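Hi again,

Forgot to attach this to my earlier email, sorry! This is the prediction with phenylalanine bound. I've pasted everything inline since the attachment limit keeps bouncing my files.
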Amino acid sequence: MQDTINQYIAEINAASPANADELETFRIKYLGTKGIIKDLFEQFKSVSAEEKRVLGKVLNEFKQTAEAKFNQLKETLDSGLKTQDSNQDLTLPGDGFALGSRHPLSLTRIEIVDIFKRLGFVVAEGPEIEDDWHNFSALNFPEEHPARDMQDTFFIKKNSGQDDIALRTHTSSVQVRMMENGKPPFRAIMPGRVYRNEAISARAHCFFHQVEGLYVDENVSFADLKQTLYHFVQELYGEGTKVRFRPSYFPFTEPSAEMDVSCTICGGSGCNMCKYSGWVEILGCGMVDPNVLENCGIDSKKYTGFAFGMGIERITNLKYVIRDLRLFSENDVRFLQQFKTEII
Ligand code: PHE
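Structure tokens for the complex follow:
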């Protein structure tokens, strides 16, 4: 019996269960109710009195060893460490791990935000689920404006019976919230996701990302707007990039304009990105309509302001010559990995 016990002790010392299941097998084998130790104690009952004196001690020690080993193995496994494999070569270099990459839209957003931060703009955020007031009415959208139509806006039916809740269609809603809740001057940009009820194709998606901006203070003029956006474009696309403003219309700005830059791909000589015009449109802008300022509790006699808004997808498409919007949300690593070197 002594020899058998010695053999078991050697076995126990060498045991290295790799997981909780193997540890449980170990416990059942030695310490279980039908286990080896229980069995040895049974056999012990029928040995001679003389043998008992010696064996009793050995058997008890064996039991303690098995229990101690079990506790130690359990602790090692619980702390997530595998028992050391004596064959492991600790001088080998560790397994490297692959570094992820930023999403191209994040890269563009970071770049845009960075430029405006250097001009003293702060970043403001707001809810993606909005009410009619913040998304439309405060922004001077007339009651019958087509943008409120089901075809353009995702309305949300709420149990509360409120039927004017929608996914925001632009981050101008954040401008309203900011003006309602603070006092001029305001100098902020609003990056965020927006939603429109469009059929998904290479050129349109039901959601996209914007950076809008707002500057309200005394004596803010259209010249300030032009200079700010001109500077932005020089920073984003490089010195010498040309800009032009075309008159446009938005309910919340007056006058309104759309801004084009000389084609970032061909430099203005004409290519299929700019449809051979030499210009590409990148944003909408204008002087904040006095009605909007008044809707937000700001004295439009004392304060003026400008606002602008751009699509991050559009800027990214122009920068990396991406022609299909769907690539941004498909999570295809073959696409995403191409932006690996651009981690900021
Ligand atoms: N909110 C406009 C849009 O979503 C962009 C814009 C913002 C235009 C501010 C002018 C001024 O298209």
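The mean pLDDT is 90. Residues 104-342 form a domain with the BirA Bifunctional Protein; domain 2 fold (CATH 3.30.930.10).

That should be everything now.

G.
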